[in-house]
Each structure stands twice: as C-alpha cells, then as structure tokens.
Amino acid sequence: MNNKKTRGGISTTTALVAALSVGSADAVQAADGATLYQEKVCHSCHGANPDEPTIPAYPKLAGQNAVYSLQQMKDIRDGRRTNGLSIAMKAVVGSVTDEEFQIIAEWLQTQ
Ligand code: HEC
C-alpha cells in the first residue's frame, strides 16, 4: 500500500462509509441521535422536525438542554413523571435505554 499517495482518497471514503453505516454506538453522534429519534418513533408525536410536534398538546423538544431532556425521558419511561399525556409516551419508550436517550437528548439540544 502506498499510504502517502492514496491517503486523502481513503480517508474521504472511510468518512462517508462511517456516516452512512448508522446504528452503531461508535458512529458519529449527531447522525445517531437523528437516527434513534426516527427508529424509536419519537417523531410520530414530537414531529419529524422536533420543533414541530404533530399536535399542540405534545411538547417541542428542539433546543432543550440535554440534561433536562434526559431526565424527563427517564422519568416518563420509569413512571416517575405521570402528568398530562405522559402515559402516551410511556407506552412506547419502555425499551429505550439510558444510553439511547442520552444520545437523542444531546442531538435534540443542537436542533
Ligand atoms: C405517543 C406519543 C409520544 C412518543 C412516541 C414520544 N413522546 Fe415524548 N412526550 C410525549 C408527550 C405527550 C409528552 C408530554 C407529557 C406531558 O403532557 O406532560 C412528552 C414529553 C417528552 C419530553 C419532555 C419534554 C419537556 O419539555 O418536559 C421529552 C424530552 C420527550 N418526550 C422525548 C421523547 C423521545 C426522545 C421519544 C422517543 C424515544 C419520545 N419522547 C416519544 C409524547 C410522546
């Protein structure tokens, strides 16, 4: 292998492949947050754009501080927060892990 000659091409390709192969915890965090938000069906209530929930009774999540969002997600999943329509979310996020919530929360903060 002639690393010097092909280095630029290889690293560009590697970066593209890494960005496309989502689903791994090792992938780029920003991409993971967006992907998890879709895979865990958060978007069905909080909106494809987390600033535009599907109905006004659901909260906007974009731009919220990650530390706050993460706590709310865990409280709703674990039944500590039961106000309003929390029960609707609790019904679908039971299997989402703390790590997945954290990645989503950090992504939401940047939206
Ligand atoms: C079935 C609809 C639904 C789904 C799916 C859903 N949520 Fe929610 N979520 C809600 C509702 C409704 C609330 C507000 C509860 C209330 O009325 O107080 C909420 C609240 C939240 C909050 C707290 C917002 C705040 O300002 O306190 C966060 C953060 C959140 N959801 C994140 C998520 C994430 C992340 C997912 C996906 C893993 C998700 N939600 C999936 C309906 C949903």
Automatic annotation (TrEMBL):
Q: Report the superkingdom from the record.
A: Bacteria
An example of a GO molecular function for this protein is: metal ion binding
Keyword list (alphabetical) reads: Heme, Iron, Metal-binding, Signal
Q: Name one Pfam family in it.
A: Cytochrome_CBB3
Signal peptide, first to last residue: 1-30
Describe the location of the Cytochrome c domain by residue ranges: 28-111
Keyword hit for Heme: yes
> What is the name listed in the Swiss-Prot or TrEMBL entry for this protein?
Cytochrome c
According to its UniProt entry, this protein's organism is: Thiocapsa rosea
